[in-house]
Amino acid sequence: xxxxxIRPQVQEIIDEFLNEQKPILNGVSPAAxxxxxxxxxxxxxxxxLRAAFCYWGYKAAGGxxxxxxxxxxxxxxxxxxxALVHDxxxxxxxxxxxxxxxxxxxxxxxxxxxxxGSKELFGVGGAVLLGDLMLSWADQMLxxxxxxxxxxxxxxxxxxxxxxELMAGQYLDLYNQAKRGGDVAESFNVIRFKSAKYSIERPxxxxxxxxxxxxxxxxxxxxxxxxxxxxxxxxxxxxGVFGDPEIxxxxxxxxxxxxxxxxxxxxxxENANPAESKLLEDLFGKADLTxxxxxxxxxxxxxxxxxxxxxxxxxxxxxxxxxxxxxxxxTTEAKNALAELAIAATSRRL
Amino acid sequence: xxxxxIRPQVQEIIDEFLNEQKPILNGVSPAAxxxxxxxxxxxxxxxxLRAAFCYWGYKAAGGxxxxxxxxxxxxxxxxxxxALVHDxxxxxxxxxxxxxxxxxxxxxxxxxxxxxGSKELFGVGGAVLLGDLMLSWADQMLxxxxxxxxxxxxxxxxxxxxxxELMAGQYLDLYNQAKRGGDVAESFNVIRFKSAKYSIERPxxxxxxxxxxxxxxxxxxxxxxxxxxxxxxxxxxxxGVFGDPEIxxxxxxxxxxxxxxxxxxxxxxENANPAESKLLEDLFGKADLTxxxxxxxxxxxxxxxxxxxxxxxxxxxxxxxxxxxxxxxxTTEAKNALAELAIAATSRRL
Lengths: 350, 350
Description:
The structure is a homodimer. In chain A, strand 1 (about 95) and strand 2 form a beta hairpin. Chain A has helices at about 5-30, 35-45, 50-60, 65-90, 100-110, 120-145, 150-180, 185-210, 215-240, 245-250, 255-260, 265-270, 275-285, 290-305, 305-325, 330-345; strands at about 95, 100. The mean pLDDT of chain A is about 95. By secondary structure, chain A is an all-alpha fold. In chain A, about 75% of the residues lie in helices and about 0% in strands.
């Protein structure tokens, strides 16, 4: 896919960076260099969606410093690494992409070495620190991307806003889940900040800012990126409930066990008849759901029309995003790549 | 104290920064703006030791951009905020400076609101995110301090190294504790990276780098700062065992219950006779130590000569640090302030 052609270069940049960090960690202690190895494993083979949006946002703005934008875009993969590792700690999720989550990796290390004390606490500690390192390495890589100061300053301001929105959005997610959900509007707010802005709109704009101070371009990228980001997260929520575990890398029904208050779920609560409401109340968020109970919940999500409604929303948001792109005057190359990315981000399988 | 005269300005800069962040978080959700309030509470009234060392490192190098250095120095308080909040999660420490730790604050919020799900997990989640925010805000503040690009670039490179060393040092601390300690040399490595460099040497050098590219000054600040930092942490370890809870803000004996493998403890293990060894093996790291058992452990730390040896080490390191300062040609004003800070950092009460 042309739009994801940067994947091998992003991988190379991440590897080189980690190679440079390794002796520093090793200098503290060979034990600490384990952190680099875990980071490397964790960062292998991602979709590089955020990096790609950043890259094409830059291209859309007419930027042509290839080496620099590849480094800046790769920085987002470290930020995403932090978000995922810390997210798994906060959700106590034991798997990620079909493999043990990082805190589980540290727990296993604790087990294998017959260490003293609580292995759970050691697992959390290792994962918190690895996430902190990746969060730190992200801005380090961005600031060392080689752009001149004015471009970096514009980019870093946007990046700072994105980070704050991300953490606030994640907190809102925890909060809404704890208060047993809110309404459809609130659940939209979560996906806007935790996901849509962070995954698509802001990476595009970061690329744009690194190329130009044109505020018009910044707006175009938002008009295209924000609805697309919302559609992307709605698709992700559908996959979290109905997706094939082989493709999602998560056990079927995990989002239902976790009690994630998605737009899909809020719509079901809003439109449920008394029998459906009771079933939702009883089963949604139950940690030990059986496969049969997962199926029952899925049926309610269909019967209430929530699933169809989310599919409709995805379609509408996708169209709105597409129109913004068509009407814009970004370069043809970027337009084609962004249109391709838009399909990939909202299709049923990515 | 002249050397800590910047404390009110640091407080003001932190407050202003948080005032600017509040509407951003509020825009995500009023619930999320709680994060700013917790950060504000947490960051009130610290000793500002790292900020002071950064400020005086800058002055030692002849820097005279007051507003800029105060902002850069204040950034370190956010980094320290992250380190403490995440540290308390990793150690499952419930108090900090005599008040509930941040994860406990979030647990209490969960309780007060009769939220659903695990309050412990909500507490950990809130604290991880607040730490991530403070870690992000630290480099944001540093990069917006107003220095010109070359100075910022030099400073940020040093800052990046410091962050990586800090996280690696903290991991080594967890690791050594889990493997039931190592030896005196290893425990020195932990205090070097987790504390001495991070608390004193690197903040001094950050200030220096923001003023000058003179490598000689950078070395002077290390020759003064590293032994001083080690002495500082050794004092802290003594206070953790023998200190007055009124002053340390931690329950007496908490470090002993936690099983912190400090230089003090490693020295005791190394020099214990069979009876003392048995007592150490039996009681050290026991989560429910009684006051009587704490007293027994304290006696062993005295009888083995470990306490005296640590006092001697503090004295030697302090002298070495002092000599490096005396022999240097930094400005008299800075020399006086640094000498004052050195005493404060290693005296029995700070």
